[in-house]
Design a protein that fits this description.
two-stranded antiparallel sheet; 138 residues; 5 helices; quinone; disulfide bond; oxidoreductase activity; elongated; 2 strands; de novo design (two linked rop proteins); mainly alpha; VKOR/LTO1; Vitamin K epoxide reductase domain-containing protein
Length: 138
Amino acid sequence: MTTPLWLILILSFLGIVNTAHLAKHSISKTDVECIGFPKAWCHKVQYSKFSKTLGIPNPHLGLIMYVAIFVLALLFVFGLAPYAYTMIPVALLIIIGFLFSLYFTIIQAFILHAFCTWCIISAVEFTLLAAAILVYGI
């Protein structure tokens, strides 16, 4: 297995853990911990009008994307599905995830003037995923 596949599997798994944590708080309507930032900032991001896309909470969409990336990459690694049906969709999902993360980070910085630790972690994960496919190819 090439380096990018290991990176894709590890980073997408970490993304699953991160977004599952956010989704749990979204479902239970409880505030997420805000490590490194004022607690009010995470609350502001978590309950802003930007916290949903097409009526779906962003953590749920992120979780779906990370799970899809992880499962598709695993299918390819174990030879259960061909490259065209796995890694091309993985690359597209990573690019989409990176662009959404960039958009939401800009929203946090310039509109909300508040950051969510877990959202920033997800943005870093998608940035590293995008860098992996750009540097190593997919």
